[in-house]
Design brief:
Order of helices and strands: HEEEEEEEEE
Number of strands: 9
Oligomer: single chain
CATH architecture: Sandwich
CATH topology: Immunoglobulin-like
Low-confidence stretches: 7-23
Structural class: mainly beta
Number of helices: 1
Mean pLDDT: 81
Number of domains: 1
Helix content: 10-25%
Shape: globular
Strand content: over 45%
Distance between the termini: 63 Å
């Protein structure tokens, strides 16, 4: 009886230690960069030709530099106008599911570099907040990388 309690505590501590060490070994992306391509679409002129209006749009692409490609299931991306905001985009990409998707986003990976087309936005994105993190097959999230201006 005397050894049953310490053995149970040891087993519990070992189990907790294994779970903590697994969570700590899943590393997130090393870096995130954003590229913006300005375009002026919806150009119109009136019948006299003296009225000209346009609607500025911005195509956004996130470039992630990964530390490792092992056990990544999903890539999460958030884009907003201030820290923590996801008003412009909150999207999950399935890892290595390449292509152009119906919502205007896209995915392409070459080695440790992942290009994520985030779509086209109406405002100029003079100020933005972008955040990305990974999720592994066990549902464990990595630490995120952030880029803002």
């Amino acid at each position: 009886m005397k050894y049953k309690i310490p053995y149970s505590i040891f087993a519990l501590l070992t189990l907790v230690n294994i779970n903590i060490s697994n969570a700590q070994t899943f590393t997130g992306p090393r870096k995130i960069e954003l590229l913006f391509e300005n375009s002026f679409s919806d150009t119109t002129a009136n019948a006299n030709g003296d009225f000209f209006s346009f609607s500025p749009k911005v195509k956004a692409t996130a470039i992630l530099l990964l530390n490792d490609t092992t056990d990544i299931a999903e890539i999460h991306v958030r884009l907003g106008l201030s820290a923590g905001d996801s008003s412009l985009l909150n999207k999950t990409f399935i890892y290595d599911s390449s292509g152009i998707f119906a919502d205007g986003s896209s995915y392409n990976r070459n080695g440790l570099v992942v290009h994520l087309g985030l779509g086209t936005f109406e405002n100029s994105l003079d100020k933005y907040y972008a955040e990305a993190w990974l999720e592994n097959s066990l549902g464990i999230h990595s630490l995120s990388v952030v880029r803002s201006r």
